[in-house]
Amino acid sequence: MKDLFQYTAGDSVIHKLNPLTRILLAVAVCAAAFVSDNLYYLVGLLCFDMLLGLLAGVFGKALSLLKGLLKISIFLFILQILFVRKGNRVFWIITDQGLILAAKVVLRLMIACIPLALMLAVTQISDLANALVQVAHVPYKYAFTVTTAIRFIPQFMEEMADIMEAQTARGVEFDTKNGLKKIGMMLPLCVPLLVTSVRRTDAAAAAAEARGFELRNRTSGYKKYPFHWCDLLAVLVCAALIAGAVII
Amino acid sequence: MILLENVSFGYGDDSSTVRDISFHIERGEFAAILGANGAGKTTTAKLIDGLLKPTKGRVLINGLDTAKTRVSERARHVGYLFQNPDRQICKNTVREEIAFGLTAVWQNAGEDAIARRVDEVLESFGFSGDEEPFSLSRGERQRVALASVIAIRPEIMILDEPTTGLDYRECTHIMDTIKTMNEEQKTTVVMVCHDMEVVASYATRALVMAGGHLLGDGPVKTIFRDQELLKRASLLPPQIVELALRLGPGFENADTVEEMTEAVSARAKRKGAGV
């Protein structure tokens, strides 16, 4: 799972987009998913997510994400069909409207989760930070905070896995098949994770200070992030996606 | 006690693997796994504890296949000291920390028995019990982690680079405690270590790894004198062994400062006697 957030190099059309356009594209797909109330359109958006993965050369990651979301989607689907009472009864207490609503909720979850992860997988975090500073005029401190938070996600996941491994070796039953028991046992582990995270953040802050963090400004980056025709095309796609969601 | 039969293991990205290794460690042995970074030492240690399951071959601990038993169950018999103590420590006081592992493993023991054992361990390590583990120094935190492992009285101790980042005094504290367990309670020790001086001072057997293969297995004294083997594994013997090798006959067993002192005294006496 942690590999999903790791950068995948490439020369695809998505890689050629400006980092901000990629994020805009992801946000537009999410927005379209929540604006649209049409089941077919939502299915289309999910296909568009997969197409994005294919165009970016990370189709495997897109499929892994979809697979990862499947469990929680099934859980949500069952919850929805059991609790929605409106509509005509189809089977037992399940209604037709319950089925449609459940499908929409699950589709929205999948559509919203996939594009942002995919775009982050094809964007160097430093590029995203620099583009935010240069193009969007975000102060470097804030851009650095956001990008550092993203950068640390896989490291924290790795750290948690290592902590769980160490506790298993001590006899804590993390190798149990009871999921609820496992979740209960994870709570005390927040302490070492928090301590390690604070120590890591402190070390990162000291290293940044030592390398002249305070001196950085909008003109510090040597790499430029101009917009090309493909960015314009992507913005049009974004507009079309949202317009389609409103109209259909 | 520990038996590895044609064991292979590969991570998904194939960056570090173990390839077809076999060895047997008897009760009470003190074995060190040596090798350069990426040789497969930690992977082997985790395979022994069952934290990793072999893709080929089998690992037996006291006759039980690690692929068929749970790590948490094996924790009653096998203690694992990780390189980074912060992954093991999760409680607010040293007393709670030592009791945490005990309550997980000694499930049938009463609270009194656990409290007594905690007190014993606190006393032997010189902790008051009220210290906050995360406020202690790196070396002290490593001692807390070791105390938690030792508290369960494991038959086998696996140490993954236990002396990394410790100063000489802290390193000696940790290693002396482990050596005492090994000698007095016949605890089997398997240690992954980069520090050849520590290996020479404490271990009796060395397993040399490179590229996931087991290149050599034998007494530490023999392994440290096999220069060809050490070269293949990109290792250097401790400086005292290099000195002994250069000094030649009469210094074959000088692997530590004490042994070198004895060898030099013996040589001086022989010269004095005109031999």
Draw up the topology in text:
The complex is a heterodimer of chains A (248) and B (275).
Chain A: H1 13-16, H2 19-35, H3 39-55, H4 59-83, E1 89-91, E2 94-95, H5 96-121, H6 125-134, H7 140-169, H8 179-186, H9 190-210, H10 229-247
Chain B: E1 2-10, E2 17-25, E3 30-34, H1 41-49, E4 56-61, E5 64-65, H2 71-74, E6 78-81, H3 94-105, H4 111-125, H5 138-151, E7 156-160, H6 168-184, E8 188-192, H7 196-202, E9 205-210, E10 213-219, H8 220-224, H9 227-232, H10 239-247, H11 257-272
Parallel strand pairs in B: 3-8, 3-9, 6-7, 7-8
Antiparallel strand pairs in B: 1-2, 1-4, 4-5, 9-10
Describe the structure in your own words.
The complex is a heterodimer of chains A (248) and B (275). By secondary structure, chain A is mostly helical. Chain A has 2 domains: 2-130 and 226-247, no CATH class; 138-215, no CATH class. Chain A is 71% helix and 2% strand. Chain A is built from 10 helices and 2 strands; from the N terminus they run ααααββαααααα. A two-stranded antiparallel sheet of chain A has the order 1-2. In chain A, helix 3 (39-55) runs antiparallel to helix 4, helix 6 packs antiparallel against helix 7 and helix 7 runs antiparallel to helix 9 (190-210). Chain A is flat and about 65 Å long. Chain A starts with 12 loop residues before the first helix and ends with a helix. The relative contact order of chain A is 0.16. Chain B is of the alpha/beta class and 275 residues long. Chain B has 3 domains: 1-77 and 154-166 and 178-229, Rossmann fold (3-Layer(aba) Sandwich), CATH 3.40.50.300; 87-153, no CATH class; 238-275, no CATH class. Chain B is 41% helix and 21% strand. In chain B, helix 4 (111-125) packs across helix 5 (138-151) and helix 5 runs parallel beside helix 6. The model of chain B has no long low-confidence stretch (mean pLDDT 89).
